[in-house]
Fold these 2 entries.
Entry 1:
Amino acid sequence: MARKTYALGLDFGTNSVRALVADVQTGREAGTGISEYKKGKQGIILDSQNTHVARQHPRDWINSMQEATKQALGQAGRNIKTFFPENIIGIGVDTTGSTPLPLDKKGKPLAEHPEFKNNLDAMAWLWKDHSAYAEAREITDLAQKIRPHYLDKCGGVYSSEWFFSKILHCLRKSPQVFRAAHTWAECSDYIPAVLTGRQAPETMPRNICAAGHKAMYNDMWGGLPDEKFLARLDPRMAELKARLYQKAVPVNKLAGLLTGQWAKRLGLPERTPVAVGAMDAHLGAVGAGIRPGTLVKIIGTSTCDMMVAGMRKEIPDIPGLCGIVPHSILPGYHGLEAGQSAVGDIFNWFVSCLSPCGMGHTELTRLAKKLKPGKSGLLALDWNNGNRTVLADHRLTGLIMGQTLHTRPEEIYRALIEATAFGAKIIINRFEEYGMKVNQVINCGGISEKNDLLLQIYADVIGRPMKIASSSQTCALGACMAAAAAAGTKNGGHPSLVAAQKAMGGTRDKVFHPIPENKKIYRRLFQLYRDLHDGFGGVGKTGFSKIMKELLDIKESI
Amino acid sequence: MARKTYALGLDFGTNSVRALVADVQTGREAGTGISEYKKGKQGIILDSQNTHVARQHPRDWINSMQEATKQALGQAGRNIKTFFPENIIGIGVDTTGSTPLPLDKKGKPLAEHPEFKNNLDAMAWLWKDHSAYAEAREITDLAQKIRPHYLDKCGGVYSSEWFFSKILHCLRKSPQVFRAAHTWAECSDYIPAVLTGRQAPETMPRNICAAGHKAMYNDMWGGLPDEKFLARLDPRMAELKARLYQKAVPVNKLAGLLTGQWAKRLGLPERTPVAVGAMDAHLGAVGAGIRPGTLVKIIGTSTCDMMVAGMRKEIPDIPGLCGIVPHSILPGYHGLEAGQSAVGDIFNWFVSCLSPCGMGHTELTRLAKKLKPGKSGLLALDWNNGNRTVLADHRLTGLIMGQTLHTRPEEIYRALIEATAFGAKIIINRFEEYGMKVNQVINCGGISEKNDLLLQIYADVIGRPMKIASSSQTCALGACMAAAAAAGTKNGGHPSLVAAQKAMGGTRDKVFHPIPENKKIYRRLFQLYRDLHDGFGGVGKTGFSKIMKELLDIKESI
């Protein structure tokens, strides 16, 4: 019998690092660990003067990685008699993104330099930082004018959350930080570089997932945006380009081998293979079993809706998608990313901000389950945080209609869930309208495990069975799969990421099937949702879209 | 010095009778009394099988009238040394309406007959009873076809709350009650008839206020709807017409003189003049100081917006108004009634049904006061109970838009108040579009006294000063004015209702003036409100109105 092998997946989230030790042959969990970041508010460093700011300190990543790994290895050792750290054949890394941080010439974070110790702009700019909203608009405007093809691959709008917006904003706001920064790296590049001793910018492996989805990297135009384009933003941005990278690679590639120092710190063998990093949602999709024809929905505070498509046939530019990037999810396939900018966040808003009748999610869910579709007369738009796909417009807001003098909180709660389901259906329809057939839907993420009501509504609204990934940690599991693929068969791993998925992934037995009578009513309600969506979203010609915009104009003018 | 004289106003509300003794020279309150009805739920007799049903027992009226009068006279005697019941020179009566009840040949309520003791259909059909919704549609359809002018005076739609809808429904549902009923009377006719011994149907004085606004009575077509029209509904309705009435008279006329029996029961002199009755909102408008150019807003769970216009110039049929009836408010003037179907009810819904963060009206008002107009980005429609004026469509529902993930309960609360203010402005605009200049707005009713925030928002939105009637019981005060006018100068009263108003009415010193910067923002928000209003209300051609209708269709089909 072959030696039993394991992989270590490290999942760098918004508030913590999770570590997972998984059996390379079956994907079964051997041990897990979690370590919350220590700095700021749950690991997020805020600026009381500017609510757009959200930063992280790279030292938090390092410390939590060490702690979570120790926990996971310890648990694996206790769970499985035959487990030893020496059985770990590879390490995979997924992180939030775009979360860039400025580095010096040696690849050391500026945040570790004494002179920038308390400078928020020298830290990592967390994905949800929106301080660069003006620069995002500037980049979008410029690209629309002179490089429209740059935008075609990222949904038509360059976001304030992304790589170049943040760097340009740093240049403007903290020129001393920008000057001191030799280069910038994504968290998903920085961690594998640290583990493999390839922090020096000229040797640092860069991942195509963050590059393609967040930095307009594409082989079609030779990598990152061209110098002329960057120079139009600022000549110093063009100069920076040479100190960034020429080439980005997919997640099944080796980033390098674990250094002696890090082997000691983590308690693992030296020279353990470390895979190139990727963003969490993308490895989450891998962990959930993404393949052509399968849509993976990662449902949390927001959603990511991921698909892949073979590279032989050309993929059209699908309007409203957040990104279409070769190799970004599965090597050898186009990775397609869509998403809803708020799902769980909307339910949390209703419960936390409004606290209706003092009820929490459990009680509201219990009551909402008893309601029949359509019976409340309510209809809502799921735009409390704008709309990512297909409208790609963050300047949209929530709406609820149909209230009477008897409307109950659980009716509103259910209407909000239904609204997110309608939004999900719009995304699936968009994929299919552009020839991306959806044969199955696999859900993952916290809400999909906990909320039967939501999955049943999704099945009824979308009109398809809703499956659930077997792992409750699909991101870390995806990282384990990447580790197994990067390690390769010679190390007891897998020949490819797809092979790793087949061996290590799967879905649960419980599937939510559409209930025919509900499906019928939701088909009618969806027509009405679409009328609202198109009318207020500016797709139709009704002029209703100007109402939302003008409300925001007024709000912002006060 | 002339003898000091007083009037007694009796205000028959939904849950109680209020009695007011007021100084005829100054309108000052001498004493008040209130007596809640004893039967049913706060005086409303419900049917657990049919939520549309809302009835009252006429005995409740009689008992509470006696009790409230005793209290008011007692209080007046204690307050004012020179007061004696002999100083009461007249009695005025206002009641809810349309609240018809079936009577036998002698004018005795069928509800007092042993065989109908527990029959809800033999009781008074309270204004808010909606069981006759199908008959209302039938009457509206028929009138549209063969007597469109009947509808022109009552807003284009005959309501399920009104006289003939209720009687026709009784005929269909309880033919034995309909057969036993010699005639039907409004509460506002029944009470003065009882007090003056003119209960016998052939002698019973009928008031033009209820007749004109609720029973399509108009001198233009010779009184009540013609027999042919009624026969098309049912031949028995045409037969009933002869047993109803030929002539209705205004509130400054004498209904008769107090009988000896009732003089004893109330502790008042025999042969005290009793004025013809009227509906509460109409005498409320009188009590608040209505005159040409003055709009009186009675703000409670819903609103009534009342105006009067001289009869010399012809009043156009104003689309969407609830009623345009000669002499219905002030004799010698057209009485015009508009209204919003829910105002306080919407705020109560938000607080009671949603109970956001456990906050009540006081706390929400305190927080909402701190907000700046437009800053929440919210906009709402005030249609949780349909729209009375100007759309005259009860099949409309509430809407709120502009929510983010940070929207707070007090922002929603304020947006709901603003929505009712926008709705109020639409009504004022409609009056003025049809040549009814509004020179001042006087508010009365519970909310206008208690809620400074609301009045300030109304001033800012409507762009005019908001005055408040000095009396907090304008309906009962209006009834006192009617009593003083009906008694006339020879009895120490007033020569006319207008003279009584001048002597006995007034507004408070505190006036809410528009704040210029708020007014500016609300002007922009009102444009958006109007877009929503016209779009969802079906005025525009956007097709959005079908969304609300279809939602209701679905709701009602389940």
Entry 2:
Amino acid sequence: MINRDQLLSFIREDAPYGDVTSEAVIGNESCKATICTRQKGVIAGLEEAGALCSEYHITVRFGLNDGACAEPGALLLSLTGRALDILLVERTLLNIIGRMSGIATLTRRLVEKVSRVNPGCRIACTRKTAPGLRGLDKKAVLIGGGDPHRFSLSDGILIKDNHLALVPLEEAILRARKYSSYRTIEIEVEDDDRAVRAAVAGADIILLDNMSPDGIARTLQELNRCGLRDRVVVEISGGITESNIAHYAGLGADVISLGILTHSVRNLDVSLEVIR
Amino acid sequence: MINRDQLLSFIREDAPYGDVTSEAVIGNESCKATICTRQKGVIAGLEEAGALCSEYHITVRFGLNDGACAEPGALLLSLTGRALDILLVERTLLNIIGRMSGIATLTRRLVEKVSRVNPGCRIACTRKTAPGLRGLDKKAVLIGGGDPHRFSLSDGILIKDNHLALVPLEEAILRARKYSSYRTIEIEVEDDDRAVRAAVAGADIILLDNMSPDGIARTLQELNRCGLRDRVVVEISGGITESNIAHYAGLGADVISLGILTHSVRNLDVSLEVIR
Amino acid sequence: MINRDQLLSFIREDAPYGDVTSEAVIGNESCKATICTRQKGVIAGLEEAGALCSEYHITVRFGLNDGACAEPGALLLSLTGRALDILLVERTLLNIIGRMSGIATLTRRLVEKVSRVNPGCRIACTRKTAPGLRGLDKKAVLIGGGDPHRFSLSDGILIKDNHLALVPLEEAILRARKYSSYRTIEIEVEDDDRAVRAAVAGADIILLDNMSPDGIARTLQELNRCGLRDRVVVEISGGITESNIAHYAGLGADVISLGILTHSVRNLDVSLEVIR
Amino acid sequence: MINRDQLLSFIREDAPYGDVTSEAVIGNESCKATICTRQKGVIAGLEEAGALCSEYHITVRFGLNDGACAEPGALLLSLTGRALDILLVERTLLNIIGRMSGIATLTRRLVEKVSRVNPGCRIACTRKTAPGLRGLDKKAVLIGGGDPHRFSLSDGILIKDNHLALVPLEEAILRARKYSSYRTIEIEVEDDDRAVRAAVAGADIILLDNMSPDGIARTLQELNRCGLRDRVVVEISGGITESNIAHYAGLGADVISLGILTHSVRNLDVSLEVIR
Amino acid sequence: MINRDQLLSFIREDAPYGDVTSEAVIGNESCKATICTRQKGVIAGLEEAGALCSEYHITVRFGLNDGACAEPGALLLSLTGRALDILLVERTLLNIIGRMSGIATLTRRLVEKVSRVNPGCRIACTRKTAPGLRGLDKKAVLIGGGDPHRFSLSDGILIKDNHLALVPLEEAILRARKYSSYRTIEIEVEDDDRAVRAAVAGADIILLDNMSPDGIARTLQELNRCGLRDRVVVEISGGITESNIAHYAGLGADVISLGILTHSVRNLDVSLEVIR
Amino acid sequence: MINRDQLLSFIREDAPYGDVTSEAVIGNESCKATICTRQKGVIAGLEEAGALCSEYHITVRFGLNDGACAEPGALLLSLTGRALDILLVERTLLNIIGRMSGIATLTRRLVEKVSRVNPGCRIACTRKTAPGLRGLDKKAVLIGGGDPHRFSLSDGILIKDNHLALVPLEEAILRARKYSSYRTIEIEVEDDDRAVRAAVAGADIILLDNMSPDGIARTLQELNRCGLRDRVVVEISGGITESNIAHYAGLGADVISLGILTHSVRNLDVSLEVIR
């Protein structure tokens, strides 16, 4: 779902009083332009770019679609319109495509790494997104093949250590179940004992947070031993990087979640060139 | 300047229908909480965090101020308020502080690297920010000791290659000068010849874009030779990384601008812990 | 969570150019006022009313709290402030409290009716709310003791007949499962055969829509017979009214959902009286 | 007048992060859909529904127009577009049409009841609308044949008991007249004595609030006797229901106003069906 | 009624990225400042200025109140707060006070001129306000002693020549009366014949637009002769200036309306001085 | 750059609940209309008017373009659309065109007056605009041939007397230079001594504020004598009116700035006529 209001707010941010350079130096002429990538990557943000262009009467032809894996130099979009309009939206288009493609590219790379070791294990992002960009960041993860996890505090129950500082584990799960019949209940634990207690108490998802590979393995065994493994989804998180993810993936969890997918984005390098 | 509307919009993004977990599992009790950094870095975003807390009647005590260099484990903020409110704003606070501190930290590191080689040379960021976060990203650069460059298309004239595809260089500068007596005129060039032509035509700032160190050195000499060096600010950009920036800094430009400061942020790792 | 922006927008709706009557006929004097209910009911909206008053520097004392069951004549709020401000917010306060209390009152009544027959059976509302009032309507249901069900299309998967017109049942559940490990998957069916197929395919919640009591009973038996009853939550909906709900409750479903809770609200009659 | 911003805000309310079900289970295909009513009623909200569809590139064919009296099963709208878009707006369309048609239907029924007894007597609504929906609720009353009364506190002077607790009746009318030459002045009274005093003092409209039929009749006679009946519009309100309205209509007032038209709406039952 | 959202939007307009000068050159110190007028005039906008200051934690002491007639040099407001905050709001405060006081001053001058000739004749403004400033402009007219006329197209019926190009006069009045029992009906005419027809048809207010003094006088006589003068309010408009208004006032109309009050404002000269 | 959100907000301001007159008295018919000027002037606001019309499906034909000098009676725009829509936007269109053309007309007149005396001297406006209309007011000045000066506090450094009450002149310029390499530094002075000090300290622009013609002349000589004249732009402001501007223009400054261009606008008289 495209949020046009948000896209237009990006333009107002980049040009609260218009684009003084273009207004000063160029006239009312039309031109063409191309947006290409300079790096290999999974492309995202083209749907948003297209929607934004159409608000400015810029005609768009798609060279690729969101989700495509592009080689360096690949044409993403061809634009035709007034030069004033194309230059007005240029940086915003590139910032959107660059960030979303950066997220999608890393997601896809980790998804592939993990699936070679454990095809049933998913990659998920977290709520550690750039503030204001939750929707775009999550969509980019989806395009990269990842799981969007919770969008917000409103759409799933996740009992964390900070809750458990205030209420006992079993009581927390009981209250959560009473709150709604429709929400999955996830709970964050840091050892095997609490993992088992959470599963017994009826949690749907167990998040093993900041545990060592050994601790994770032991916890999974323990859940198995108690006949609880099939009743819960097991997510692991914390200390997992691109270099050690394959090792973690081999431990047998259902989901690996990583803040890095969205809180430490490396934009894909894309650029726009005006063609007279 | 704090934009409270934007801060509140971040909360609505993270909780369009409230925080279902906290509402389900905890009561109306008060608590304390601390926000600490797990990594060494230059801290930014505390002013925003404080302003957001005060919207939710959370009392804040500052352990450090924006701009401070924090060691791992350092206390940034102490909070007192309703647990429901503290947990509602937790992730947003951390996302703001994490991103802004990440930007400030890298900026400070590059500023120091450059000033050891060339104390007169500044580090600047670009408009390659996360869409919607221009103001926060630029402020973090300032806190890190960098130059914010243009905030938007409205506040300075920068004639780029895409303009020059449509209008000749001298004509562009002439029109820009005619547009306003108040704006600096910057122009992007890719060789020494055009740098000299731009200076002769009256540009205030010359951006040497994507030029090799040799090319940059030759251009600076050429400007010197023509007696134009003192009349212009020289900015260099493109292909400059943390590992080669010291070399570039030695070439004698006035400003080095880097998209990486804001388009490929690595959040500083900060966390919030509830204390019963 | 209080959305102050929304509350203030209600005032702008009721007074785009101020309150011409009060500005014309009364001066800058202070006064007291009371808000009382004229009907028996479960009170909701007081937290919102209090927050709105504080935006206008009106001091509020709570006679009751949200969730209380009030007798006719009960004092809900005492207000002290400028008469101009109290009269400006009067109608908005009453409209909020009246609507939310109307919803909470009906919810509580149905919850009690059902729990007498089947204490394990919950009452839930739907997305058939007044447009723009989703959050307030859902909160009122919670206050009345009901289940808020999905807040929006973003927070849970519910495969309905209109989806099944486009994709086969098993395929739909498979795709939903693949989309996310975190969301419950609910599916709407209209006969026992599809209910069993849905449970076998892995749905978490089965919505028996517009089925007769007999059909519902048969479906529950069939799920039992197949050993699937414990693996799914069963929700029933359609044709259920205040007069037949006890009968439906006795059939053994887990949740009864009713659009009537929010789409056909009867406001609780509350009024404000100025006391000189 | 259509408020597109408000219509789009309804979609963002129902899908802050998109429609996860449709995005998960269906593809990019097109489809047709029909919106029909399951109940007899006066239809309203189709203009809004059409405007909202056009924002999502959904082609609309109108089966009926606003104000039409529809039989059960009647086709209101035919839609053609992407299934993803139609399902995204489905519930919002139905909530708008359902609520507005519910209001229009009751209004029309009361208008007809009253006009059989007293063709000169009008039905009006009040400001007891759902907060945020004032414009739509008032428009639905107009479509049903009712009088919209004041839209807001800004567009007419209505001196109520709470004003009269602070300023004497004659003084209030004097001040109101002095405030503006353009506004009608209405005043709420509860007995015949004050009704006469208000008319003598120059009020344009007298609202007989919460008076018994006898009291109303006596007041109208008294106004007649004093030669004031023709100089004022007489509105009656309070305690009037669908079952006793004919009796009240026979008393000879000019307008009967009812909060029930908008504060206790019963949605008309409408539904959308996708046709592959 | 103060619209804080609008006031804050003025600050965002004047400082989308903060106040770079103050942030660059001054520190976090506190200071005092005074706002004085350099010209004699009727002061307006102080309530708005005070509300805006309080959003920035600036303490305000009022030297005068809205509506006061100030001599040159008079102190309007004393401010105490952070210099950064005072300088941030300075220009916006002055623009609000300057414009609103300019409007109030001219209004008061014309009101006094007219009342010397015809104490029963009022001065009214029109909808020819600066776009976006309707509320502030109308409030300033009220403070100056004028009549605010319609705030908007929503709050009163005014049938103008452009309507009468599409529908006959009597039919238009009939339809207007049928639309609502609560709205005054005003109609614009340009000769005595139509004025009489309008009054006969039941208009409440007759606007004699762009008529000569003779034409106005003749029309008033004609209305008198037909016994209609007391049944209508007569407004005159068009071609009336500060120099001829006394003459027009003597003709006996009830209201003189002037676009000039709000469409051609001359700001009152006010300034802010920081006191260390 | 057109801000459609702002244009639509103007309509909501003028019709929060629609146009009751047109809705009451006219039907759904189409019509034509013309917008003409009754006065000679430089036309501005047509681009905005066209954009607003297109939001309401009104077809527009341009009789003139922004910047044209129109004679009385000149056709500016021809409109075709639903009468309801044309009458809804009428007043807003006229208010926009009237104000912007008023600004452009005065600007052009002063520009021409000045250029006859001193072709190198520019006319600039200030930040003394109507609050909320900064962008439109500045655009109108540009259309009239003026310099827009700073749009806001964010886009250029201007050190004023209120800053200099808090920090010494040289220190202020030093800090400003350190803040950014990209911003011009302007400083306001009131005598020749400080003008020279400012130029020596490196200011780019010297604003001679409220100085007599003699003082200005002496300051320019002094700057010349010190060899600083070519290094700075000299702006003069304060006490300059349409009648004395030619004299000031002859003194040799580079820019004359006037608040009057935007704070005391006289709307150009434009009107809309419906043609059946």
